[in-house]
Amino acid sequence: MSAKSQKLNQILKELEKNTSIDGSAIVTQKGQMMSSALHSDIDEKAVSAMAAALTSVGTRVGGTLKIGDLGQMVLTGTNRIILLNSLKNSLLIALAPSDAKIGLLDFEIGQALEKIKQTLG
After folding, report:
1. Which of 29, 34, 60, 95 is most solvent-facing, going by the fewest CB within 10 Å?
2. pLDDT digits (tens, 9 = 90+) for 10-26
3. Cβ distance 37 to 23 under 8 Å?
4. What is the rounded distance in angstroms from the CA atom of residue 67 to the CA atom of residue 117?
């Protein structure tokens, strides 16, 4: 594992330690897994491919509605929240319980995004 991959894994673990997030990953815009802290029962390839597809759809909708660059998408369900944050060439996916405090998650994810940007250059 490269030093960059180790640093990304460390950032994900730190994010989970500081919040109620209990699964996260960094994937490329094209749907390739870069770093994962997802549970072993989750298909990483499926998650990374679907995250890329969601981002593509979100970007198209955003373009139609003229919102500017895609920043964050939030999917809420009865059991879980999925937060998808767009970086320049990659995405951060985070999973949290449905009762998680979104404001705290946004704050911590923002800090993690800055560290990821620095790591990826």
Report:
1. 60
2. 999 999 999 999 999 99
3. yes
4. 22
